[in-house]
Amino acid sequence: MSASAWTDAEKAAAGAGITIRTLDDIADLEEVRRLYERIWRTGATNPPVTADLLRAMAKAGSYVSGAYDGEELVGACFGFFSAPARDALHSHIAGVSGRMAGRHVGLALKLHQRAWTLDQGAGAITWTYDPLIRRNSWFNLGKLAADVTEYLPDFYGPMDDDINRTDATDRVLVRWTLTEPAVVAACAGTPRTVEVARLRTEGAVVALEVSAAGGPIVRPAYGRTVLVGVPVDVEGLREQDPALAGAWREALREVLGGLLAGGARVRGFDRSGWYVVERQEVQ
C-alpha cells in the first residue's frame, strides 16, 4: 500500500509544481519556524513552534517536512506519534504560504505525510481543525475523506496570533484511516461527497443555517439526518464583526458539538457549506 501511496504523493507534488522532503537540519527548521510565523502572524508570546523543538522531534523519529517551490520553502507540516506507540501519527501543524493559493500544496503535503506514515507501519493520522472554516472542512472531510471523532471546545485556549486572537479555539479531531477505501479513492483523486439537495428531499433536517444577514439560525435537530451549516468566510467575520463570529462559534458548539456528544456521526461535508450528520438514535 505504501508504494501506491507514494505514487499518489509524487503525482500531487508534481501537479503542484513543488518538491517535498523531510527535514532535520537546524537551518531548514528555522525556516519552518519563520514560515509559520508569517502564515499565522503570531505575537511574541505564542510562536507556533521553535526550531529546537522541531530538531528534537525529527531526531526522535517524528515527521517534519517542507514543500519547496524551487529553493523557496512554501509549506511545512509536522506531527508526532500518539499512544499506543506508533499506532497513529498526530499531525500538529500544517501551513502553506498564501502566495501558493490554488496550487494544492496542502494536498501534496498530506499525501506525502500519508505515504511516510505508512512506511513507519502506522495506519492512521489524526489532527484538529477549526470546524467553522468552510474550505478546511471540505478539504479534510471531502478531499481527504477523514472522519470526525470528537468536538473539542476551546481546545488550545487563548492564542496570540492574528487568525485566532479574537475567538475561542474550538476544534474538531479527525482520524484519517490511511488504507480505508474512501481514503484510498480520495488520495487517487476522487473526493468523498455528500448530496445535500437529495438528502433534503429525503427528509434531512436543518439544525443550523445562515440567515439573510449572515448570522446563525439554530433549529431543533429532529430526525435521523441533520444538516449543520457554516458561514462562507468566518475569518473575514472575525476581522469585520467579531461579535457575529463569536455568535457562530457558540451556535456551532451547541449544535455540532451537541450532536457529536450525543453519539451522532459526521458522514461528510458538502462544499456549499453543510456538515451532514447522522444521529444514531431518534427520540
Comma- or semicolon-separated keywords:
9 helices; 12 strands; alpha+beta; transferase activity; 2 domains; 37% helix; 7-stranded mixed beta sheet; 283 residues; Aminopeptidase; 5-stranded mixed beta sheet
Describe this structure in words.
By secondary structure, the protein is of the alpha+beta class. The protein folds into 2 domains: 2-187, Aminopeptidase (3-Layer(aba) Sandwich), CATH 3.40.630; 196-278, no CATH class. It has helices at residues 2-16, 26-40, 51-59, 105-119, 134-143, 181-187, 196-201, 234-240, 242-261; strands spanning 19-22, 63-69, 72-82, 88-96, 124-129, 147-152, 171-177, 205-210, 216-218, 225-229, 265-270, 274-278. The strands form 2 sheets. It has a 7-stranded mixed sheet with strand order 1-2-3-4-5-7-6, with helices on both faces. Strands 9-8-10-12-11 form a 5-stranded mixed sheet.
